[in-house]
Design a protein that fits this description.
heterodimer; A: about 200 residues; four-stranded antiparallel β-sheet; B: about 700 residues; alpha/beta; eight-stranded mixed β-sheet; 10 helices; 36 strands
């Protein structure tokens, strides 16, 4: 078979719309494009999933912390009378007139007020409650301020101001400088529900 | 070469040559679409932040409960406590979620009602019974502050300002982010109150149901809610009574009792406890006048923990309800008129059942009068006494109730614990005229009403001992009776050994023909048939006729043979009128002792004795001696009244006489131990305590 014959055969193949050079280049480009973007989206998805899980874990950590403080605030002035199988709320004058800010700062669960979840298995604040904290990069901080949301920029001597505002802030990377405000919550002492008027 | 060129042209002209452009454009379009879709899918806000936003909204709604509980449980001003009992609905809330207010209201229409113009429906049948005015019920909250030792006066409670705090909750979102300043700009949490509902009453408390929305926004200025937590919370509300609010004195039975207290020169011993006047105050300007209306002296002592409260709280609990009827030992009348009776009939050691824990006796009327006359009641923690009195009590002119603790070696009057002796004046029912005839005078004692109507029973306590060390210790429950310490300023009283006696029965003068315990008192009446009021003084009383302003001093009978120089009537009473004495004749008619105003059956109806009750007739014998009336001086008796315990009555009418009333904390505990927690009766404060329902799944349209 001569050269011309071979060329004609190749032409015939090309002329039938088969896998030509352009198609080859195009399909390769598309494949690369798809693979690249798939990889990108998979990694993006993974990052988003990680952030979601991290957000959820931080929210859970904060929620847990609020519940612990609430529970301790409720129970710290309750004594047990085991002989009568009853609990007694110690609503004496001294307890009822406690400074709420001092009270909350003296709770066992308040300290430390800044912690690094997953940093130390042996401490309550550092123990891993969620595997996502394994890298122990996250830091959570809470700040308490006394104040009634009803009385912002206002003095009212007739309203009891024994309310504490707690602000939770988070550093997603403990090496970062800035804190991201996560959530606020207002707490007060449950004991006050059992205290007589002043 | 020629063949190749032809072949090329042929392939160029082939239709499939267009595929390249088409595929390219489609591929780019498809890629962009898929990229956008995938990107938006993986970066969805909901995936990354949903839990944080949920947390924000939930923290906001949780915080609202803290803020509301703190405000309604406010300790600095108990007026806020009454908002637990409110029913409020936001204008933004769908009406189907709004509570239904079925309590009566007399104030101006508004979203947040004036608590002092809102009325309880329960017990309103008793409260509004025979009401002369338009009676809505009992005010839920007071109009006035208490009179305390510090304030020495009452003021109107500023409900308008307090309502403004609550309207803040309803009308706008309350931010919980503002306390931390401007750095909160990217995290804004707030809450708003949608409705408050209350199920319950003031005696046992109830449940307050709050509908709340916690809101999260991206920032302060954003109008879009990024998350919302709608919450229904039911909180248990309990009325609590602190020892400072315990009502050692409680007056007022129903809406007509506008003059049911006069405190005069009351001296309260003890630093804790309250005086409760169950009365609606319609206008807040009355608050400033409460000192004057209650009649309390500016020099009177008021406990530093407690005060005088004018507030129609629920009616006092009744100790009679818990007494087994077969346990009651019935006597007739108990007349303790001489020292002999002290050791016989008027001595609880002779009444039997000595060793029983609860001894209950029922009598008709109790009269203790005269020097050394006393009713001795011995009690201990293991032998408590209850005396049910179906009629009236008159303790006067040296007579006293001597309550002695069985273990007290010296048998001192007042050594018995007040919680171990209960006197119950049985509640009476009747028309408005009978119920309301006895009222306190603004000058002390009871006010003057002269008519034929028989009033409710009375309890006259004119003497408690020979000096301040002798104290009357008791718990007195007299829900429809009038308690009076006022007695007229007389120089003489009738010797209690005399056969005939005067008895203050139902706040009026009555006659005892003899002192047998089966003899019932009969009313003295004027010739027109009007009953004669027992008054401490007749100042400012317009004198309509001779019988308008009489003090009855003694009463007696003479036999036909025992006739003075003038043929006077057989039954005569010694009366004092404008500092002059008279003997006035009366006849026994229709179970009453009716004075006459003219000579009757040929006998003289009236003898003028001048300013000397011992005036004599022509034979030199005193007129009163013909009638067996012996007089004794009144100045030998100790004038102060000394009491320890509690008194819950319809009317409490003291006078200018000093009344030392001891408010003992120990009494409260002992009374509760004896009768139960409900006897911790007084001015309540309301506390929202435990959370009964926490429904975060609640949805409502707004």
């Amino acid at each position: 078979m001569g050269n011309l014959e071979i060329k004609i055969k190749i032409r015939k193949i090309i002329s039938k719309g088969g896998f030509g050079l352009s198609e080859n280049i195009l399909s390769s480009s598309l494949l690369i494009f798809l693979v690249t973007f798939s990889t990108y989206f998979i990694s993006l998805r993974q990052k988003v999933m990680f952030n979601t899980n991290l957000n959820n874990a931080i929210s859970d950590e904060i929620k847990r912390d609020i519940e612990i403080i609430k529970s301790e605030l409720k129970n710290y002035k309750v004594s047990k009378n085991e002989s009568d199988n009853i609990s007694i709320i110690q609503n004496n004058s001294e307890n009822c007139n406690e400074d709420i800010l001092l009270t909350i700062r003296n709770l066992n669960s308040w300290n430390p007020n800044e912690w690094n979840p997953g940093s130390d298995k042996l401490s309550r604040s550092g123990q891993i409650k969620n595997k996502i904290f394994k890298g122990s990069k996250v830091k959570i901080r809470r700040i308490a301020k006394r104040g009634n949301p009803l009385l912002i920029n206002r003095e009212e001597s007739q309203i009891d101001n024994s309310i504490v505002n707690i602000q939770y802030s988070v550093k997603l990377d403990k090496n970062n400088e800035s804190w991201e405000i996560w959530s606020n919550v207002v707490l007060s002492n449950e004991l006050k529900s059992y205290c007589p008027p002043l | 070469m020629k063949i190749n060129f032809k072949f090329y042209l042929k392939s160029r002209n082939n239709k499939s040559g267009f595929v390249l452009t088409q595929v390219l454009i489609l591929a780019i379009g498809l890629s962009l679409t898929i990229t956008a879709l995938i990107s938006s899918a993986v970066n969805r806000l909901a995936l990354t932040k949903i839990k944080k936003l949920e947390l924000d909204a939930r923290n906001a709604s949780d915080s609202s409960i803290t803020v509301l509980k703190s405000l309604f449980n406010n300790r600095k001003n108990r007026a806020f406590n009454y908002y637990w009992l409110q029913k409020i609905c936001s204008e933004n809330l769908n009406q189907e979620y709004c509570p239904i207010e079925n309590r009566k209201y007399s104030g101006e229409d508004s979203i947040i009602k004036d608590m002092s113009s809102l009325y309880w429906n329960n017990e309103s049948t008793n409260w509004c019974i025979n009401s002369l005015e338009n009676c809505f019920g009992r005010q839920i909250a007071p109009k006035c502050t208490a009179i305390t030792n510090f304030s020495r006066g009452a003021k109107s409670i500023d409900w308008i300002t307090f309502n403004s705090y609550i309207s803040n909750f309803l009308n706008k979102e309350i931010s919980i982010s503002d306390h931390f300043g401007y750095d909160q700009k990217n995290n804004f949490q707030s809450f708003s109150l949608k409705s408050i509902d209350y199920y319950g009453d003031d005696r046992f408390g109830g449940t307050t149901s709050l509908l709340i929305e916690g809101i999260s926004r991206k920032n302060l200025n954003s109008t879009i809610k990024t998350a919302s937590n709608k919450l229904r919370v039911n909180i248990k509300v309990v009325p609590e009574i602190e020892s400072s609010g315990f009502a050692f004195l409680s007056a007022g039975e129903n809406d007509n009792d506008k003059n049911s207290i006069f405190l005069g020169n009351l001296e309260i011993i003890g630093d804790t406890g309250s005086i409760l006047w169950r009365r609606n105050i319609k206008n807040s300007f009355e608050c400033e006048k409460l000192n004057q209306i209650t009649g309390i002296s500016q020099l009177s002592s008021i406990p530093s923990n407690g005060g005088i409260w004018v507030q129609p709280i629920y009616s006092p609990p009744n100790p009679y309800i818990n007494i087994p009827r077969n346990q009651i030992v019935k006597f007739g009348n108990l007349y303790c008129l001489d020292s002999l009776s002290n050791s016989t009939t008027c001595n609880s050691n002779n009444w039997g059942k000595i060793n029983e824990l609860e001894r209950v006796f029922s009598i008709n009327n109790l009269l203790i009068r005269g020097e050394n006359s006393e009713l001795n009641i011995f009690t201990s923690n293991t032998s408590k006494v209850t005396i049910i009195i179906n009629g009236s009590v008159d303790i006067n002119f040296g007579g006293k109730i001597c309550h002695i603790d069985k273990r007290d070696f010296f048998r001192r009057c007042g050594s018995g614990k007040s919680s171990n002796l209960t006197l119950i004046l049985k509640p009476e029912e009747g028309g408005v005229k009978s119920q309301q005839k006895l009222q306190c005078s603004r000058k002390g004692g009871i006010s003057y009403v002269r008519n034929k109507i028989t009033p409710n029973n009375s309890f006259i306590l004119g003497n408690t001992g020979n000096d301040d060390s002798e104290i009357f210790t008791s718990f007195i429950y007299a829900p429809s009776s009038t308690f009076i310490t006022a007695i007229p300023n007389l120089d003489y009283y009738q010797d209690s050994s005399n056969k005939n006696q005067i008895f203050i029965y139902r706040g009026t003068y009555s006659y005892l023909e003899n002192i047998s315990n089966i003899v019932e008192p009969i009313f003295f009446k004027d010739p027109e048939g009007n009953l004669l009021n027992f008054m401490s003084n007749y100042e400012d009383i317009s004198k309509m006729d001779f019988f308008s302003n009489l003090y009855l001093v003694g009463v007696g009978q003479r036999s036909l043979e025992n006739q003075p120089t003038s043929n006077t009537m057989l039954n005569m009473a010694l009366v004092k009128k404008n500092n002059e004495y008279f003997l006035l004749g009366f006849i026994i008619e229709n179970e009453s002792a009716k004075f006459v105003k003219e000579n009757t059956n040929g006998r003289v109806w009236r003898i003028f004795l001048g300013n000397n009750p011992f005036s004599v007739d022509n034979t030199g014998k005193s007129w009163i001696s013909y009638y067996g009336i012996d007089l004794k001086r009144t100045n030998q008796f100790h004038s102060n009244i000394n009491v320890e315990g509690a008194l819950w009555a319809k009317n409490i009418c003291f006078d200018k006489k000093i009344v030392n009333w001891e408010f003992k904390k120990e009494f409260i505990n002992n009374l509760i131990n004896r009768y139960g927690q409900e006897f911790n009766y007084g001015v309540p404060y309301y506390r929202g305590t435990s959370i009964e329902v926490w429904d975060t799944m609640r949805d409502f349209s707004n």
